[in-house]
């Protein structure tokens, strides 16, 4: 597969909300091209709302999101989908759809007017089924799968889209520890091998710090800190955004920041 084309994805004075309630307030953000960005923050900080805004799933109250200098709403649906793949937090599959059929839907933006599947489409679907460990599930209905299996199938569909930018909202939800690492390794493969720009909302701070090149910490709908994990993931930042007393040390495996919560029963030891 060819390398992903370079793109500029930006939020400019972006304000997002629901029913008159502001969630993201006047935010400016540039997503580093060809890198992995993790968005973290406490509950209700606006993480998923920001991702939905970047994915044009919700309309800004003010400001805008641009892709290559154009407002994302100026793109046609298929044109945007060729560039940006989106996996929302709780995707819903059609009744009775089989795993292979769902994953193949990721190829729709690349098909011609008559919508026929090509041998290239079939090859890509087979590749992502194998890569996500879902090939043996291809003939099963999505509704029959466990939460973790369904999540891997949705990831396979997003990767089958072969977009240059992939936006994922809590992609590790429902996955056990080993499958979380497998998924994040898979996204890293796509980034390193093909230059895919990956933007993901994560809850687990240490996984976010380990896998991200660029870390964005949200607090109250604003950016509390952004930059390289080693610069951003400090005890001060974690304490300020999450209200969590902690020690930040070095991950002995990855060399990334490692957040160690203290808790009130062990506070006297530090």
TrEMBL record:
Residues of the ABC transporter domain: 9-245
Keywords from the UniProt entry: ATP-binding, Cell membrane, Ion transport, Iron, Iron transport, Membrane, Nucleotide-binding, Transport
InterPro entries: AAA+_ATPase, ABC_transporter-like_ATP-bd, ABC_transporter-like_CS, P-loop_NTPase, Siderophore_ABC-ATPase
Gene3D superfamilies the record matches: P-loop containing nucleotide triphosphate hydrolases (3.40.50.300)
Molecular-function GO term, any one: ATP hydrolysis activity
This protein's record includes keyword GTP-binding: no
A GO cellular component entry from the record: plasma membrane
Membrane topology term: Peripheral membrane protein
GO terms (BP aspect): iron ion transport
Subcellular localization, as worded in the UniProt entry: Cell membrane
Domain of life per record: Bacteria
PANTHER family the UniProt entry points to: IRON(3+)-HYDROXAMATE IMPORT ATP-BINDING PROTEIN FHUC (PTHR42771)
Protein known as: ABC transporter ATP-binding protein
Organism this protein belongs to: Agromyces albus
Phylogenetic placement of the source organism: Bacteria, Bacillati, Actinomycetota, Actinomycetes, Micrococcales
């Amino acid at each position: 597969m060819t390398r992903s084309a370079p793109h500029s994805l930006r939020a400019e004075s972006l304000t997002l909300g629901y029913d008159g309630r502001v969630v993201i307030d006047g935010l400016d953000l540039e997503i580093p091209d060809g890198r992995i960005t993790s968005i973290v923050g406490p509950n209700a900080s606006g993480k998923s709302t920001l991702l939905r805004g970047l994915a044009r799933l919700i309309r800004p109250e003010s400001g805008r999101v641009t892709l290559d200098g154009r407002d994302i709403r100026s793109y046609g649906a298929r044109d945007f989908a060729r560039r940006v793949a989106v996996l929302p937090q709780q995707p819903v599959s059609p009744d009775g759809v089989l795993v292979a059929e769902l994953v193949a839907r990721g190829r729709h933006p690349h098909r011609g007017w008559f919508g026929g599947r090509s041998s290239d489409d079939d090859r890509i679907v087979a590749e992502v089924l194998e890569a996500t460990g879902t090939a043996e599930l291809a003939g099963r209905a999505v509704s029959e799968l466990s939460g973790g299996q369904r999540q891997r199938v949705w990831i396979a569909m997003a990767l089958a889209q072969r977009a240059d930018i992939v936006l994922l909202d809590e992609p590790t939800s429902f996955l056990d520890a080993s499958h979380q690492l497998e998924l994040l390794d898979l996204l890293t493969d796509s980034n390193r091998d093909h230059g895919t720009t990956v933007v993901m909302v994560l809850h687990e701070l240490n996984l976010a710090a380990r896998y991200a090149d660029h870390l964005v910490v949200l607090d109250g709908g604003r950016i509390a800190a952004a930059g390289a994990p080693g610069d951003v993931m400090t005890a001060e930042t974690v304490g300020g955004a999450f209200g969590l007393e902690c020690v930040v040390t070095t991950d002995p495996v990855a060399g990334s920041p490692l957040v160690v919560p203290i808790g009130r029963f062990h506070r006297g030891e530090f």
